[in-house]
């Protein structure tokens, strides 16, 4: 075995034999750092691994239904797909201070009632974790704490304790003595995660990894880290709001794009079982520029408020500011309002916000965005018990969206009595009692029905 020096990009993992100021793969500057890697000669290891795997017919493979373990926090179990799967490897990322450690400490303390759990704190002392546990009211006899950063020492304690659950907080601070690079480097994160994955799969220990995020919001380290794990969860939230959203972007044991809603309190995170009612609690009725849209997050419909403010621009170039929704999508809808509906908006400052710190990604909120903008521009309020949804195309047509019955049922449950939806979604839908369904084929027709 001999050693050689390579330069590895800390953003994308690209390796180069010499230093370069700019990474040729991700085009980031000053991200290549020097690392020492070991080169193993010979083919003995490869031959041994190849001999261990034997091809088999797909029809001969037997499968069993995984027994999920519920932690008792319904919102967390929902995002995981119904509970924790034995042998699964889950990665949780989020901004500093968002509540990742709080959520895992609350969850693992409940799972410790099923079997012994090991919480490895690589960034804090056991005393700090104990103080947080007292504040959260965590009491679990079989919850063990370990303040350690060496992977070899952690695996040795796992072998001795044989825990049923394992938490690593965080993966960027763990290092292995097999590599000379610093903790948090691409090679360290990749190697540590790979060895923890083998422990989880071979021993059947559900493992949770906490991951730092970059300034762009992506999980720090190599992108391969997200490919290695079974589930990737992002913990989102606004510093000015007490609400937190746990979002699944990858899940091999359940559906993706599921969300769980929590509220941060002095005693920790509490689950929000009815987020629609919570997000609409402070909605001002009769205010121009406010529209309610039913957004579908995974299998859960959530009613959120869109707030728009359209005013004359004092500068040559009007401002376009959006929060919680794609900026380019809003610019497209403004152009449709200008060209197809006839509203003069191109010389106006436009501000759009999704109340409650929620982030909306689906095109079904297009019609709600256009209604909020038109309401603010015309200074005319949308009827307070009206919701609307639908995707809007470049020609102004309103296209059908998925799962309209779930959206309508959620709105009816909260007391809404009128819904504007795509005409293509009216087929095979039974209107709930007291709910009037109005099908529209164009954005102009929808706005005329709201303000005429």
Q: What does the model show?
A:
The protein is α/β, with parallel strands linked by helices. The chain has 3 domains: about 50 residues, no CATH class; about 200 residues, Rossmann fold (3-Layer(aba) Sandwich), CATH 3.40.50.300; about 170 residues, Ribosomal Protein S5, domain 2 (2-Layer Sandwich). Helix content is about 30%, strand content about 25%. The chain is built from 12 helices and 21 strands. The chain is globular and about 75 Å long. The N and C termini lie far apart (about 80 Å). About 0% of the residues have low confidence.
Broad shape: globular
Structural class of the secondary structure composition?
A: alpha/beta
Q: Tell me the number of structural domains.
A: 3
Q: Give the name of the CATH superfamily of the largest domain.
A: P-loop containing nucleotide triphosphate hydrolases
The CATH architecture assignment of the largest domain turns out to be 3-Layer(aba) Sandwich
Lay out the secondary structure.
Elements: E1 2-9, E2 15-16, E3 32-39, H1 44-52, H2 74-80, E4 89-94, H3 100-111, E5 117-121, H4 126-136, E6 143-146, H5 151-161, E7 165-169, H6 186-203, E8 207-211, H7 224-228, E9 231-237, E10 243-251, E11 259-265, E12 268-271, H8 275-279, E13 290-297, E14 300-312, E15 320-323, H9 327-341, E16 348-354, H10 366-378, E17 386-388, E18 391-392, E19 398-399, H11 404-413, E20 418-422, E21 436-440, H12 443-451
Helix pairs in contact: 9-10, 10-12
């Amino acid at each position: 075995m001999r050693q050689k020096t390579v330069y590895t990009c800390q953003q994308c993992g690209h390796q180069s034999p010499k230093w370069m100021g700019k990474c040729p793969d991700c085009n980031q500057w000053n991200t290549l750092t020097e690392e020492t890697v070991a080169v193993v000669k010979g083919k003995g290891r490869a031959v041994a691994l190849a001999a261990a795997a034997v091809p088999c017919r797909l029809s001969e493979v037997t499968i069993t239904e995984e027994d999920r373990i519920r932690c008792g926090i319904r919102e967390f179990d929902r995002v995981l797909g119904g509970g924790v799967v034995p042998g699964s490897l889950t990665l949780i990322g989020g901004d500093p201070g968002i509540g990742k450690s709080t959520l895992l400490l609350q969850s693992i303390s409940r799972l410790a009632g099923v079997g012994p759990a090991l919480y490895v704190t690589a960034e804090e002392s056991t005393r700090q974790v104990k103080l947080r546990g007292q504040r959260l009211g965590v009491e679990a006899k079989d919850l063990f704490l370990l303040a350690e950063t060496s992977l070899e020492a952690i695996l040795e304690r796992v072998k001795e304790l044989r825990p049923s659950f394992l938490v690593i907080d965080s993966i960027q601070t763990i290092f292995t003595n097999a590599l000379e690079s610093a903790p948090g480097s691409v090679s360290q994160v990749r190697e540590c995660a790979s060895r923890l994955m083998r422990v989880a799969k071979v021993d059947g220990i559900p493992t949770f990894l906490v991951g730092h995020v970059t300034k762009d919001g992506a999980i720090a380290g190599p992108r391969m880290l997200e490919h290695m794990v079974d589930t990737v969860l992002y913990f989102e939230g606004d510093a000015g709001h007490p609400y937190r959203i746990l979002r699944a972007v990858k899940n091999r044991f359940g559906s993706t794009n599921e969300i769980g809603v929590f509220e941060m309190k002095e005693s920790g995170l509490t689950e929000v079982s009815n987020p629609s009612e919570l997000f609409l609690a402070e909605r001002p009725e009769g205010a121009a520029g406010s529209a309610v849209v039913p957004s579908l997050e995974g299998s859960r419909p959530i009613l959120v408020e869109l707030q728009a403010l359209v005013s004359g621009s004092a500068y040559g170039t009007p401002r376009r500011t959006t929060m919680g929704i794609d900026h380019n999508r809003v610019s497209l809808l403004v152009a449709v309002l200008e060209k197809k509906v006839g509203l003069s908006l191109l010389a106006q400052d436009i501000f759009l916000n999704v109340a409650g710190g929620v982030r909306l990604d689906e095109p079904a909120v297009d019609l709600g965005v256009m209604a909020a903008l038109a309401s603010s521009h015309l200074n005319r309020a949308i009827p307070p018990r009206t919701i609307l949804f639908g995707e809007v195309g470049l020609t102004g047509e309103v296209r059908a969206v998925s799962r309209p019955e779930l959206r309508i049922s959620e709105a009816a449950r909260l007391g809404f009595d009128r819904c504007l939806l795509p005409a293509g979604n009216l087929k095979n839908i039974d209107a709930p009692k007291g709910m009037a369904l109005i099908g529209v084929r164009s954005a102009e027709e929808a706005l005329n029905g709201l303000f005429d």
